[in-house]
TrEMBL record:
Protein name: Tetratricopeptide (TPR) repeat protein
Matching SUPFAM superfamilies: P-loop containing nucleoside triphosphate hydrolases, TPR-like
Organism expressing this protein natively: Streptomyces iranensis
Ranges for domain Orc1-like AAA ATPase: 20-198
SMART domains named in the record: TPR
TPR repeats: 711-744
Compositionally skewed regions (Basic and acidic residues) per UniProt: 119-130
Region (Disordered): 116-138
Pfam families in the record: AAA_16, TPR_16, TPR_8
InterPro entries given in the database record: AAA_16, P-loop_NTPase, TPR-like_helical_dom_sf, TPR_rpt, Ycf3
Sorted UniProt keywords: Repeat, TPR repeat
Amino acid sequence: MGRARPSMQELIQRRRNAGFVGRRREVDAFRDNFGLPPEDARHRFVFHVHGHAGVGKTWLTRRLEQTARQEYGALTARVDETASSVPEAMAAISEQFARQGRELTSFDRRLATYRQRRHEAESVPAESERQGPSTGSMAAARAGLAGLGLVPGVGALAGAVDPVPLAEGTDRLRAALSSRFRDHKDVQLVLDPVETLSPLLVRELSEAAAAVPWLVLLFDTYERLGPLLDPWLRTLLTSERLGTFPANTVLVLAGQTRLDPGCWGDLADVVAELPLEPFTEAEARQLLTAKGITEEPVVREVLRLSGRLPVLVSTLAENPGTGGDVDDPSATAVDRFLKWERDPVRRSAALAGALPRRLNEDTFRAAVDDDGAGLFGWLRSLPFIGDRDGAARYHDVVRAPMLRLQRTTSPQRWGAAHTRLAETFAGWREVATGGLDPHDGWRLDTWSGPRLEEWYHLLCARPSAALPGALRDGIGACDAGTAVARRWATTLVEAGEDADSDAVRAWGRHLVEALADERRRGIEAMGLLLARAGLDAAARVAALVVRGWHRRSVEEFDGALGDFHRAIELDSGNVRAHFGRAVVHRATGEFTAAMDALDRVDALEPGSTWVQRERGETCRRAGRYEEALARLDPVIEADPADHVALGSRGQTKMALGRIQEALADLDRAIERHGDYTWALLRRARVRSTLGDTAGALEDLDRVEALEPGIPGALGERGDVHRFAGHYEEAIAVYDRALALDPGYAWALGSRAMANEALGRRAEALADLERAVALNPGYAWAVAQRERLLSSGDSPEGGRNDGPV
């Protein structure tokens, strides 16, 4: 029988191999936690490592990950600030689990669909430009899609915001958006991926947790991740809304600041705090001894210059020199980082390499003189250079004094170097995207990435001169979505810090705060720019239009209309503003005003088929079905592949009772886009009406595979079962839909009919009362409630139905 425990020799060798010095108390606390079952009150589900930059948080985090994986058989994943959204954090977890042999297959498949659909949604302007106006299409794309994939909670709002009564339910907003946009087969996924993807991730994490002793999820640089991930992680830990989180999971959060008490204050009993201070002198000496540095004058100089910060102790220990020059009183930390590098070309290259925020060989060559162009490999070997997200990065504690030294030593050389880098990034952006318009470019990483670096270097070179342009350009960043807008705001913060510009730094911080609430998108940021940035007329129009569309997306209809009207006062020919008015009026049931606004769009963009499609959809939503057909028919004649117009016409024919024709249009729409979920849902309804229960369920199965757990799809499935006489099955499905969205009035009305069919009149009446309380304008539910209260007649059997 093999040894149950490792020998002393093995333990000593393991420690040596790890190369880890210090932090024994923190590592031991982490180890001890694995000896306590999750049911034990002493077990901690969260470890919070916090301390100043350079204190060794990332170093310790990696050690904790190594400990969990090697000693306790844990599956681990580590996320850092390169994840700028919750979906990106989830993707990082899945990718790292896959590398350890545990693929999260269903989640990965759905994530791939999300990325594809979001790309399709963001490509709408370019496609629309080929068939009509790019500005109108961009307005539609920005109305509720681009960037909203990162907004937790929008899905919960979506079920209640559309005023069209009767059958819209939580699917109403998705249906309306699908009819307006050219490629919106997966609107709910794009609109709210957190609500859609999280249950899949949690389910597969639970399956993985059943096969291994522990799961350990580590989140580094949490001072940046916290505002983004706090609500999501808290929900995972304290609520089953997104699924049942496995109890054998341990989280490690590592950042410079303490956890937000508003989010974590009541969870102190599950969080273990691990505050990190600089090394003790004994720990720093232990590291130096391990590096072979024992000469006392050298040790004392390293301790003095490093402040015992682990990253600096390690850096200085790589090449400590000799005792002959350690007592130079004029030495600074930056001098000491490079003091023992005698080659002036290498010294210069190391300083110049600190100028870009992220380094690869191309940016390094752009930053350094010709003599240093071949030194990138050498630079990567330096102890203060690390790898992050495929790029080399200086440690903050080292980079900051290097930048400060260059800025203060020669302001002219500093400005020239940053100007040269800005021009380099601008050239790369032009080459990569072919001069793409900024409104479109912000949605592409190949454009927005170089653009942000360009602004960073311009702001470092000439802060006051560059700031107005950077603020104006931020309007397009906010238009592209919260994640991009945050990167823009963070760029201002970092440029302000590195250039020591109070104005740039303050603007960046205010904008970061304004963008903190994802549900508000860029509304507050645009408000700041409009109030304080001194925008010219054209920029004011752009900011008003962007804020108007953002306000429309959160159902602030009056504010949205006000912004669009002000934009039109400044620029009467702005298509996006006029189209925004049309969309808001349509959402509020003011169909005549919506058509008037579309007339104005048509006058500005004559002959555009997309405008006719929008008119047709407006007529359909208004219940003017014959007029809708008259407008949609020419659109389809002009473009037989327009699946959105085909779907809209199919739904119109359904409303007119032309069932077979409706089925033909929906078939054509789905033939052109096989995963067009909006059309699949409508075809399921048509097939159910024709008595094709199997076909209807087949369509709904396809929807479920594409968008698991969508309440609207479950409501349709319940109706298929109900009209087939499968009342218990119908009720079970309605229950699932209502568990996902308790405010789903349409499902309550349908469940009431199924309950009444089973003789459960009290339950039926209770459901109808709840439906009417949720939506007092829900005429169908009001009528059914009055029927039950007054006459006791049998259920009428009609669909809980209306314009969709």
